[in-house]
Every structure is written in structure tokens, then in C-alpha cells.
Amino acid sequence: MLLIVAGCNTQVVGPQGPPGNANVTAVTISFHFDDAIYNGRVASQQYSMPEITLSVVDNGAVLLYFRDQGTWTALPFTLGVEADDTPGADYTFTIGYAYDDSFLEVFVETSSASDAVWDDIVALLPPTYVMKAVIIDGFAASVMRDVDVKDLPSVLTYFGLED
């Protein structure tokens, strides 16, 4: 019996496609203090985010920005709050985030678990924050070395995404 194996190893190369962002997605979400879950010093809200795949978790990145006073600010963001009658920051709070496969969590964490501090923060901040997540699959930091990832318009422009 004779077995003959033949194969073809031809590579067909087509024309270059238009520039694009097939591996980058921007998703807008809202963080509502009324919907947050409070646990001591942390208030958090969780989002189902199917755009964040295992590939993004293992090889990519998620950048998150919040809109306040007409500008986009990169997270995490920390602010010190001072009482009018005493110098120095009475407490700080940080707006941050974490992600995993199909999941995004946004949180506000204070340096104090006092209910008065939470009342102050909720009164100080808008009840809802509009946020934009930029989800990058197959991210290579060396490719973006000239992009200011803390500046949402720069990131959106780099990837050809609309605001």
C-alpha cells in the first residue's frame, strides 16, 4: 500500500484594508450613587460587560474615564476634602475600577467609614457620573507609547473612536 500526502502551502495576500479599530471598543455607562452598594468605606456598582473578554483580561486593557465639569478625567482619581474651619484634608475619596471577564466594577472609597463623610461626599458629588470605558483587546503598551492614556480625547482619536 502506498500513501501519498500532498499539500499546498500557498499564501494569498489581499489588498490592505482601511485603517480601523477592530480590537477596540468604547462603552458609555453611568454610575449612580443611589444604585451603589455600600460596604463600610466603599460604595460600588457592578456592570455586566460582555465586551471585556478573557482575551482582554489576559492580553488587553480597560481604561475608564468619568465626565465632570465638562472634561473627561482618567480613573483612578483621588481628591482630598478639607473642612472650612481646619487646614489640611479631613478625608480623601478615590473613584476607581476593577474588571474581569464580562465584568466591570466602579467604586468610590473613602479614607473614613463615617456616615457623615458619606453624606458629605454624596452632597459634594453629582448623583450620577457618566463614564466611558475604552476596552482594548490585544493591547501592547509599546504600540501606544506616544498616546496620553490619561486623556480620553487622545485615546479616542488614536483608535479612531467617536466620543
Q: What key attributes describe this structure?
A:
3 helices; mainly beta; 163 residues; 15% helix; 40% strand
Summarize this structure briefly.
By secondary structure, the chain is mainly beta.
List the helices and strands and how they pair.
Elements: E1 24-32, E2 37-39, E3 42-48, H1 54-59, E4 61-68, E5 71-74, E6 77-82, E7 89-100, E8 103-110, H2 115-124, E9 128-136, H3 152-159
Antiparallel strand pairs: 1-9, 2-3, 3-8, 4-5, 4-9, 6-7, 7-8
Roughly what percent helix? Answer: 10-25%
> How far is the first residue's CA from the last residue's CA?
66 Å
The whole-number mean of residue pLDDT values reads 82
Gyration radius (Cα, Å) is 22 Å
Shape field: globular
Strand order of the largest sheet: 2-3-8-7-6
Number of helices: 3
- Low-confidence segments: 1-10
Count of DSSP strands: 9
Structural class call reads mainly beta
- Topology as H/E string? EEEHEEEEEHEH
Protein described:
- By secondary structure, the chain is mostly beta strands.
- Helices cover 15% and strands 40% of the residues.
- It is globular, with a radius of gyration of 22 Å.
